[in-house]
Amino acid sequence: MISAVLQADKQSAEDDKILVAAAQALLQKIPPLKHLYIVDTDIDPHSVEDVLWAMTTRFQADIDFYPQRSERRFMPDPSQWPPYREDPQELPMKALFDCTVPFKLKNIFRRAFQPN
User: Fold this and answer.
1) Mean pLDDT across the chain, nearest whole number?
2) Residues 38-77: tens digit of each pLDDT
3) How far from chain centre, in Å, is Cα 80?
4) Measuring CA to CA, which residue among 47, 49, 27 is closest to residue 97?
5) Are strands 33-39 and 93-99 parallel, antiparallel or unpaired?
6) What's the pTM value of the predicted model, to 2 decimals?
7) 3-state secondary structure the chain
8) Sign of CA dihedral 27, 32, 35, 40
9) Is 41 exposed, middle or buried (0-12, 13-18, 19+ CB in 10 A)?
């Protein structure tokens, strides 16, 4: 079971949707990948603090959260075992968190502190 951070540099408004679609495809292609966080280039993807800051300031669950059903189970993850679920036949879920600034706000959304 892994969580991953994908850093992206949006160049156009279309990138908002293209990025989410690409990340959703990535979630399906990598069975152990359970949570995927997308961040902008001003976020250090190796810093838990930076990623959490992006999630706190650039993420709204009703807009930027994309749950998706797994195509298959990854059995090393005990939360994906059939007894964990109310319906043991139901496949588990994965989660995509878009913690990026919408492209239309990119020029006005500035980070007050830039880490070195």
Assistant:
1) 91
2) 999 999 999 999 999 999 999 999 999 999 998 888 888 8
3) 19
4) 27
5) parallel
6) 0.89
7) CEEEEEECCCCCCHHHHHHHHHHHHHHHHCCCEEEEEEECCCCCCCCHHHHHHHHHHHCCHHHHEEEEECCCCCCCCHHHCHHHCCCCCCCCEEEEEEECCCHHHCCCCCCCCCCC
8) negative
9) exposed
**CA distances, 84 to each of 73, 93, 94 (Å):** 12, 12, 15
**Rounded to 5°, angle at Cα 10 from 97 and 109:** 80
| HSE of 116, CA atoms in CB hemisphere, 13 A | 0
Structure tokens at 52: 């959490």
Residue in this structure with the two tokens 């293209």, named with its chain if needed:
18
Q: Which two tokens stand for residue 35?
A: 């949570």
Q: pLDDT above 70 covers what percent of the chain?
A: 97
Structure tokens at 28: 């399906």
Q: How many CA atoms lie within 13 A of 110 on its CB side?
A: 4
